[in-house]
Amino acid sequence: MKNKLFIAAVILGVFLMIDTSLLAQDTGTSSSSSSSRSSEASRSRVIVVPPVPDLKAIEMHDYTHGYSYTSSSAEKSSKLNLSKRYEGTSTTKKGTFKVDDGVRKIRISISGRVESGKITVDLFLPDGEEVGTFKVDDTADVEWSQSINIEEDETKYYGEWSFNIKAQEAHGRYSISLSTY
Known about the structure:
The protein folds into 2 domains: 42 residues, no CATH class; 126 residues, Sandwich (Jelly Rolls). Helix content is 18%, strand content 49%. It is elongated, with a radius of gyration of 26 Å. It is an alpha+beta fold. Strands 1, 2, 3, 4, 5 and 6 form a 6-stranded antiparallel β-sheet that branches.
């Protein structure tokens, strides 16, 4: 019983020592009698904008689909997102992306959905070795991902990776995401 009273007293003491202005920031209420100050605080909003990465490090070659690419050379990380929707189109596109020396992890995700036709995505390492061929057709939606941890003495992952995207009378979409850390 004494332990329970002691714990209750400690909790009550902590609540009594809390600065009420801190509580007002989180709850939108204040114990202060100045209502103008609290209404002023509720009207103003702070938006924090993260720093924009150095855009000079961006490289994207021979690719005409929709994409976004961000890179931060200071942190040795980057992310490439590719996506496209097809409405009965047949086309073949090729592209490349670079994995910088010093990267320790690569994460690859490929997804897609097709109502009819087919979309094929081929992914290759810098030395030309095939990572995989991913086919999206009307039998099932596809979601695949893989993480690669790069050991200190491994170099086969550094350099220009390449990919081929082939749509055959495709009514559907695909998405590729490549991240390095």
